[in-house]
Amino acid sequence: MATSFICTACGTQFPPTGRPPPCCPICQDERQFVPASGQNWTSLEQLARGHKALLKEEHGLLGIGCAPDFAIGQRALLLPTPAGNILWDCIAFLDSTLVTVIRALGGLAGIAISHPHYYTTMLEWSRAFGGVPIHLHAADREWVMRPGPEIAFWEGETKPIAPGVTLIRLGGHFAGGTVLHAAEAADGRGALLSGDILQVVPDRRHVGLMRSYPNLIPLGEAAVRRMGETIETWDFDAVYGAFWGRVIPQGGKQAVAESVGRHIAHLHRDWP
Is the whole model's pTM more than 0.85, yes or no? Predict the structure, then answer.
């Protein structure tokens, strides 16, 4: 019987096969890693036996995850819009509880994902809600391990996907690294849903900008400066990162600008 195997290290799902894939290209890339214990695989059915849905309010948005954490451990966000709910980023776990709750809230009108580490079981999520479009930047097309007609690749620097909701290509962590700007979120002050492209760090007053977070590979000055200049043209007050509680509820635009400046300054610092 064919199984859509899921990488336990990053959560990426592969097309149905009779045996696990020989490797996970996303984990073999320098921005992720293959665990010292080796490459291991699971499935949605196995996940459902050992995990349960986790839903929490995250400064006005609904956070969606599972307990215990799985793979990278990110949580998704449900963003209400005039055109329907958008799922921002994705988690590998999906069960009937999550489907029931989200349907009760109006279902999904679309899915948008910041970068390949969070593609996970995106086709399963789309199909659970009627085959809604999955918006991915075309620059990261090579990292789609399980293709499907639901995937809507976009090109260029911005893409509106709902009234007041725009995807912005910042690059950096990945060539197609995307953030979502929601003009009416945060009580009308505007919000940036940033995934790992701008990773909200534990002090919740700064963001990190890295090529690889687990392998501690920084981005260079040119990339960071361009990212800062791009996001400077957008108005927002809150920044929602990829992990539970990683939210800058106010002063987010200044926090991003300060973080960009700090990163560049330390690249030039002559450390003893």
Answer: yes
